[in-house]
Design a protein that fits this description.
This is FAD dependent oxidoreductase domain-containing protein. By secondary structure, the chain is α+β, with helices and mostly antiparallel strands. The chain has a domain at 49-143: D-Amino Acid Oxidase, Chain A, domain 2, CATH 3.30.9. The protein contains 4 helices and 11 strands. It has a 5-stranded antiparallel β-sheet with strand order 6-7-8-5-9, with helices on one face. A 3-stranded antiparallel β-sheet has the order 1-2-3, with no helix packed on it. A 3-stranded mixed β-sheet has the order 4-11-10, covered by helices on one side. It is elongated.
Length: 231
């Protein structure tokens, strides 16, 4: 059962279930897979939310649009693909109005301003000049989740019996299928055949990590993660 939990319930560090807007659901196991929201439920594992934008165009039949990702001035990268329906989906930029996003909780704001919509339209023209006159039919925002080294946290939460975390997927959710298998293994067998050391949530316990001066700028975060992985 997938639930939107507001609180994970526990007794003496043993998980008992979750509280949601619809009431309490008892459970022996809880999987925190809320990515950018993960630290709201599991503060023991630090996941930083970073607000990003995406947009979809009207249908463009017959266009051969291969998935790609490119760096862009002022942002980390833009990527795009085309759905079977013909709609082009483009996403990637972090906060375009940085004065609105000075605190961590600001990154949960899903309201898209007119200036952000114009910026998205501009970059669509830059990336794909041949479709510069195509209408954008939808723009949306959401919080991605970043761990302290850019690698997801997947596994048992230390000191919490019955609690598993699968969050911090800074590169999107392309790993979702295999992570689902790993989580199922952990619940059913208590272990998994996949090598998990690099994803272990306890790798940061007791360690102080100095975040960059502007921790919510996507480009700065990726540079920071690259340095951390080389250390």
């Amino acid at each position: 059962i997938i639930l939107l939990a507001s609180t994970i319930l526990e007794d003496s560090s043993v998980v008992k279930g979750v509280r949601t807007p619809f009431g309490v659901t008892q459970a022996r196991w809880v999987v925190n897979a809320t990515n950018g929201w993960a630290s709201k439920l599991t503060p023991e594992v630090a996941i930083t939310p970073v607000r990003q934008l995406a947009m979809a165009t009207e249908r463009v039949p017959g266009l051969k649009c291969c998935p790609f990702e490119v760096p862009a001035p002022g942002y980390y990268a833009w990527g795009t693909t085309q759905a079977k329906s013909g709609n082009i989906v483009v996403g990637g930029p972090g906060p375009l109005e940085k004065e609105r996003f000075k605190e961590m909780d600001d990154h949960f704001d899903e309201m898209v301003s007119l200036s952000e919509a114009r910026e998205c339209a501009h970059y669509l023209k830059v990336l794909m000049p041949k479709v510069k006159k195509v209408n954008i039919i939808r723009i949306w925002a959401g919080a991605m989740g970043f761990s302290q080294d850019g690698i997801p946290n997947i596994g048992f939460v230390p000191g919490k019996k019955g609690l598993i975390i699968a969050a911090g997927f800074a590169a999107g959710m392309s790993q979702g299928a295999v992570v689902g298998r790993i989580v199922a293994d952990l619940i059913a067998e208590g272990d998994t055949p996949f090598p998990m050391e690099v994803y272990d949530p306890k790798r940061f316990l007791g360690k102080k990590v100095e975040w960059p001066a502007q921790p919510y700028d996507l480009g700065i975060l990726h540079e920071f993660f690259a340095r951390r992985q080389r250390e």
